[in-house]
Amino acid sequence: MRPLSPRARATEPAPAERMRSILTAAHSMTVVTDGRHHEVFRADGASPLGHIHFHDPSEAFASHQDARRVPIRLEFTDIAPTPVRDRLRARVTLSGLVATGYSADSADSTCVEFGQAVIEDATDRTYVTLEELQDAAVDPMAGCEGEMLNHLLDDHPELVTLLLRLVEPRAKRALVRAMPLSLDRYGLTLRLERADAHRDVRLPFPTPVTDLDQAGPQIHALLTAARRSSHHRLPA
Length: 236
Description:
Blueprint: H1 15-25, E1 28-33, E2 36-41, E3 52-55, E4 70-79, E5 88-98, E6 110-120, E7 125-128, H2 130-135, H3 145-155, H4 157-163, E8 177-184, E9 187-193, E10 198-204, H5 215-228
Parallel strand pairs: 3-6
Antiparallel strand pairs: 1-2, 1-4, 4-5, 5-6, 6-7, 8-9, 9-10
C-alpha cells in the first residue's frame, strides 16, 4: 500500500485499524495449537480475545525461559453482514508462542509471545506489527455496522439506488444489483454486481467519523451530494 502524503486525507482504514476493528467486533475465532482446532464463541458480546494477551518477544515469558513453547494461531473471518455475492471480506491471522497449553474453557489469561499478524482480502495481504495493532483505534461503527447496513438495505433500498449517482457511469454498465458492503468511519462501500463479476466502489465521507453520533450526518451528506449529482439514476 502506498503511504499517504502528510496532506492527504485518509478515505479508508489503514490495515492496522481495520484489523483492530475486526478483532473487536468478532464473535468467534479458531484457535490452532498443539495439533488441535478450538472453535471459540462468545455469545455474551465479549471479544473472543478477552483472555488472550500478546506480548513483545523481548519481554514475553521472562519467567518461563526454560518452558517448552508451543506455536499458536488465531484465525478470524470478516463476513459482510448483508447478502452480497462473495461475503468474505477479509481474513485475519495472529500467530505466536505460548508457554502453557491453551484451553478455550479456561477463565485464566493466556499470554502469547507475538509472532506476526496478517490481514488478507481479495486484493492485498498486509503484515501488521504488534505496536501498530496496539496503537490502532477501533472504528466507532465496528460494533453496529451490520445493524446500520441492514437497516439501510431493508428499510431504505431507494437510498442505495440514490447513492449510485455518486458512482461513475462506466462502473454501472451491465449492473444487475447494488448492495451496501461495508461501513466505517471513513465512508460507505457499495458492491456493484454484474452477471458474472462484481466491483466494489468506495464513497468517502466528507469528514471521517470520530464518534458514532456523527455517522448519521455523514451519511446524509453523501445522500445530499447524490441528489445534486448530474448522473442519471439507473432503473431498480
